[in-house]
Amino acid sequence: MRSAGPPYTLDRSLVDRASELLRAGQLVGFPTETVYGLGADASNQQALERLYKVKGRPANHPVIVHIGSFEQLSNWAADVPEAAPKLAQAFWPGPLTLVLRKSDRVLGELTGGQDTVAIRVPRHPVALALLEAFRGGIAAPSANRFGRLSPTTAQAVAEEFGDEVAMVLDGGPCQVGIESTILDLSGKQPAVLRPGMILAADIEKVLGVPVKAAGETVRGPRAPGGLPKHYAPRARLRLLGRPELEQEVERLAAGGSAPAVLAFSPAPEKWSHLSWICAPRDPVQYAHDLYGNLRYLDSGSCHLIVVEAVPEAAEWVAIYDRLVRAAGLAPSGGGQA
Ligand code: TXA
Ligand code: MG
């Protein structure tokens, strides 16, 4: 397991303060192992309305409820299917979100009016401490404005929202780096709605039944992650194979413009003046660095970020998914599980 990055302090008094703010209907940024969340009391309608407003998110896009333990699941789900405890045993706390039929008590604001609710137990120690102090469910989308890059540091959250958030708990850089796998357990066959670093194959191993992979699932407003143009940087992003990447950079450089580059090898000497990041070849490390790398490349004055295409193996599916969306392209569909 990778370390959680530079040390941070789990300060109980800050966690208690954050919990009180949540109870008072305020919004709190907090770390999870995937990305930072923008938290609100999942049982407080006004807090949820404020959450949607600050995030700039359309009201029909549901959010994930974070809970402290599997035992709390029945407070939110109408029924707990057989698969749920098996998956919780294997992956909770951790980066897996389960979509289940919702209990009648669940507010419509959480679910975008659907009859299902998305739930997960995060494994970041600060998130778990906050959930323990708060005791209820915390509704939290990724702590970015709708359609922008997800934040993987407390600083990125503070920069995105400023005073609109009562407090941001700092838990260091996120360990996983991209959002959780979303698995729909409300239908006949388990279906991945959003790929993450827990793969469809990992889930199949635990359940012993076939799981529909993300590319086979119909995409639409159900999961905004499923819409094109999401997770987008400010600059335009293009995903290119290595030879095309070199040709494109050559062409742009000859025309006097300077694209930013995320590639698998360092910048050749002639392009040493460009903003160029050499990305790791290990998908776990690549995912860990991804949003930070894109944020960095996007912070300069460039109009274009060129990203070298990633391998097609299963371990890269979630990364490919985020890159394709950042490029503003609809996903290419099946075969990416
Ligand atoms: O890793 C994560 O999942 C992060 C951290 C903060 O937990 N959260 C996150 O939240 O990525 P958000 O809101 O950015 O994405 C949640 C996704 C959305 O695509 C949403 O549509 C989907 O979950 N979702 C929520 N409830 C759903 C439901 N009932 N059915 C289908 N999809 C749902
Ligand atoms: Mg998000």
Descriptive overview:
With 337 residues, the chain is an alpha/beta fold. The chain has helices at residues 12-23, 45-55, 83-91, 108-111, 125-134, 154-161, 200-207, 242-254, 283-298, 317-326; strands at residues 28-30, 37-41, 64-66, 96-101, 116-120, 138-139, 167-168, 181-184, 191-194, 236-240, 260-263, 276-278, 304-308. Helix content is 30%, strand content 15%. It binds threonylcarbamoyladenylate and magnesium ion. Residues 32, 34-35, 37, 61-64, 95, 97, 99, 111, 114, 116-118, 122, 140-142, 179-180, 182, 193-194, 222-225 line the site of threonylcarbamoyladenylate (TXA).
Helix and strand layout, with pairings?
Blueprint: H1 12-23, E1 28-30, E2 37-41, H2 45-55, E3 64-66, H3 83-91, E4 96-101, H4 108-111, E5 116-120, H5 125-134, E6 138-139, H6 154-161, E7 167-168, E8 181-184, E9 191-194, H7 200-207, E10 236-240, H8 242-254, E11 260-263, E12 276-278, H9 283-298, E13 304-308, H10 317-326
Parallel strand pairs: 1-7, 3-5, 4-8, 10-13, 11-12, 11-13
Antiparallel strand pairs: 1-2, 2-6, 3-6, 4-5, 8-9
The structure holds threonylcarbamoyladenylate and magnesium ion (MG).
